[in-house]
Amino acid sequence: MKVVFDFGGVLFRWHPPSFLARVWPHRVADEQVGAEVARTFFQAYGGDWGAFDQGLADAATTADRITARTGWPREEIVAVMEAVPQELQLIDGTAALIQDLKAAGHTLHFLSNMPEPYADHLEQHHPLKDWFVSGIFSGRVKQSKPYTPIFELAVEQFGAQPQDLIFLDDHPENIKAATALGWQAVLFTTPEAARVSLQERGLLPA
C-alpha cells in the first residue's frame, strides 16, 4: 500500500495560534487571540498566503501584500515569516509511524502545501529522501490542496490508482477532496490516533 503524508500539523509541528503567541507576544496575548490573528495573517491559506503556498509569489512580495492588507509593520510580518522554519519541528510520534510503516513494507510519499523556502529548509534538515520514495511540495508545482489538479498530479507521480493511496492530512477539506477523487484518507489528529486508524485498516499490526 502507498501511504501519503501531509507535513504541517502531521509530520512537523504547525499550530498558528500558539506559534503567533510566541513570535508576537506584543500582539498576541494567548492562543485565543492567536487564532483570530492567524485567520487574518494566513487567510485560511488562501489569498496572499495561498499564493505563497503555490509558488505564485515570493517571500518579499508576500510580506508586502500582507503589510498592505493589514497595516501591520512590514518588519513584524517578516519576523513571523522567518520564524516559520523553527516552528516546523519534527513530531516524534509521526516519525516513529513512518519507520513502522516502512518496516511493514509500505511505500511512503508526501503531499504538502509548503512555500519553497520552507520546503528547502525541511529538505536540508530532515532525511526526507530516506523516509519517502517521492513527494510534492505545492510551492514547486504551482498547485495546492484542496484543489483537484495537485491530487491528479500526485496520482501520476506516485504511480498508483487513487484507491491504492491512503492519505493522512489534518485539514478536513483536504480529506474531503481526496476521498471525492477515490483516495482512502485518514483525518490526522495525533500520531496515536493515526496509528489506530492504520491498524484498523490492516496496515500495521495491532
Structure description:
With 206 residues, this protein is an alpha/beta fold. It has a 5-stranded parallel sheet, with helices on both faces. Helix 11 links the parallel strand 4 and strand 5. Helix 4 crosses helix 5. The mean pLDDT is 97. This is Hydrolase of the HAD superfamily. Keywords: Hydrolase. InterPro entries: HAD-like_sf, HAD-SF_hydro_IA, HAD_sf.
List keywords for this structure.
single chain, 206 residues, alpha/beta, Rossmann fold, 2 domains, 5-stranded parallel sheet, 55% helix, globular, HAD-like_sf
Question: What is the beta-strand fraction?
Answer: 5-15%
Helicity level: 40-55%
Largest sheet: 5 strands, parallel
Order of strands, widest sheet: 3-2-1-4-5
Number of helices: 12
The CATH architecture classification of the largest domain is 3-Layer(aba) Sandwich
Structural class: alpha/beta
CATH class of the largest domain: Alpha Beta
Pfam family, one: Hydrolase
Keywords: Hydrolase
GO molecular function: hydrolase activity
Organism: Roseateles terrae
